[in-house]
Automatic annotation (TrEMBL):
It is a lipid-anchor. The chain crosses the membrane at residues 9-26. The lineage of its organism: Bacteria, Pseudomonadati, Pseudomonadota, Gammaproteobacteria, Moraxellales. It comes from Acinetobacter chengduensis. It is found in: Membrane. Keywords: Lipoprotein, Membrane, Palmitate, Signal, Transmembrane, Transmembrane helix. Belongs to the NlpA lipoprotein family. InterPro entries: Lipoprotein_NlpA. It comes from the Bacteria. This is Methionine transporter.
Amino acid sequence: MALTTKTKLSLIGVIVAVLVIGLVIWNQKRSTTTDEIVIGISPPFAKPLQVAVDEAKKDGINVRLVEFSDWNTPNITLNHGDIDANYFQHQPFLSNAIKEAAYKIKPIAHGIATHVGLYSKKYKSLQDVPNGAQVVIPNDPVNQGRALLLLQQVKLISLKDPNNHLSNLQDISSNPKNFKFVEVEGPQTARAVDEADLVFSYPHYLRLAGTLDPNDALAFDDTTSNRYAILFVVRDDYETQHPEKAEQLKKFIHIYQNSAQVKHAINAEVGEKLWFAGWK
């Protein structure tokens, strides 16, 4: 018996639906069974991490790095479960992000800690920076606090609470040179040195941007604490939901922390005297 056009179309629809459902199930199965570990990172950390990725591959550990240009998306993506881990933030930043967005994420290990500095292309010393100078600082609460602590350390400003690492512009109690503060996204501070009088920035971002030698700061912070060490961060349930991948991730982190090749790469990217191990 010949099939009507309506019947043919119905059969085609059923076949297409079955194929779509099959593809969805196959894709879900593939994504849940893959042994690839995906880590979201900031670009300045890419080269040393890639060295660790190449070494880990020799041991059968498959890691893929995904770069993010901002400091918000890596946590959003991790919280959604689209990546296994991220590596771009220190504990104060993470704590603030969890407080503001109720993320279900946590640190699993420490990475490197870097010193931060005050930079200028216009002046050779802090004493030369004039009254009313334009000073660039990060706009996020945590790194802005870190910038203000450094400005206080070198006696350019005073803060109401000299030990508050979350101080903001309203917490400045004394600004004798009447600095004009400009707030920008943290990664953009490295490019602000071309225009501003004085800029708070990070050695690894300066090296990535190529705007200034990161060793040429007018002043560096004097901290040796791992408070600002970059963290490997995972979801709260990662170790229980993905125990095998969690173990592989820990092995990868061990390689990152102990490899001589990785250390050489960090020296090249950050500067040998501008970082220290946050896990010790």
